[in-house]
């Protein structure tokens, strides 16, 4: 059974870089599929951040593209998110997900809450 | 870029049928598949419909999806409503380089 688990700091200071990692178990990232990040601000809806193919090619939300980097480490079966120059508007629950097609998330992590505050 | 617009909330009684709409602002709804996700309070989203009208294994056939090119919208229909269906529902679609979620619809089963 495929499982995804997000990890990283729960508190980030404004203007700093948010860094999260998603560890995948039960499936080898190098076998295929896209792997994505989605966030949900408190009380609000879902926002796609970006996706990475197992080979390393990426797609980013145009509204976040200048601040986002997604990378993959197949040796650790992990993929990561970096979001730079964060503000309070970046406070959210961050989910990682497997994208069985790049446009369709079939397995989600439980999510991790990140608060941006000084 | 395009947007997906959903009603903020809908409510219906147990046993009844409810339909949630999702209207695409630009570009044809039929050009790119639509997915629907269910999110119960405090939980991660799960897929109830993918590729317009396909149900993942384990999703009951009370859930169905469709698209209507005339209104440029997609719909999620849930029949035989159960209290456990009470949740937020999000539609989602994409274009060549962007993946978009609707704003979500809160379904109340009362």
UniProtKB/TrEMBL annotation, chain B:
Keyword Cell membrane recorded: no
Annotated protein name in UniProt: IGL c4045_light_IGLV6-57_IGLJ2
Compositionally biased intervals (Low complexity): 64-74
UniProt entry keywords in alphabetical sequence: Immunoglobulin domain
Signal peptide start-end: none
Matching InterPro entries: Ig-like_dom, Ig-like_dom_sf, Ig-like_fold, Ig_sub, Ig_V-set, IgV_Light_Chain
GO terms under cellular component: extracellular region
Every Ig-like domain range: 1-108
Organism: Homo sapiens (Human)
A matching Pfam family: V-set
Ranges where the record places region Disordered: 55-74
Top-rank lineage group of the source organism: Eukaryota
Tagged with keyword Repeat: no
PROSITE patterns to which the protein is assigned, alphabetical: IG_LIKE (PS50835)
């Amino acid at each position: 059974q495929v499982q995804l688990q997000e990890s990283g700091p729960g508190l980030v200071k404004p203007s700093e870089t948010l860094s999260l990692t998603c560890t995948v178990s039960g499936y080898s990232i190098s076998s295929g599929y896209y792997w994505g990040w989605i966030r949900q601000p408190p009380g609000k809806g879902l926002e796609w951040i970006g996706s990475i193919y197992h080979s390393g090619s990426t797609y980013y939300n145009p509204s976040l593209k200048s601040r986002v980097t997604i990378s993959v480490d197949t040796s650790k079966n992990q993929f990561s998110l970096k979001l730079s120059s964060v503000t309070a508007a970046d406070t959210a629950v961050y989910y990682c997900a497997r994208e069985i097609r790049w446009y369709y998330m079939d397995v989600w992590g439980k999510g991790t809450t990140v608060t941006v505050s000084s | 870029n395009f947007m997906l617009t959903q009603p903020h909330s809908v409510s219906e009684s147990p046993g009844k049928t409810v339909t949630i709409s999702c209207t695409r602002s630009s570009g044809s709804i039929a050009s790119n598949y639509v997915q629907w996700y269910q999110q119960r309070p405090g939980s991660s989203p799960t897929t109830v419909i993918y590729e317009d009208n396909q149900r993942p294994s384990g999703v009951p056939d009370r859930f169905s999806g469709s698209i209507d090119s005339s209104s440029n919208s997609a719909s999620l229909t849930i029949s035989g409503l159960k209290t456990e269906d009470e949740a937020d529902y999000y539609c989602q679609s994409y274009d060549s380089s962007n993946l978009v979620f609707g704003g979500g619809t809160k379904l109340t089963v009362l």
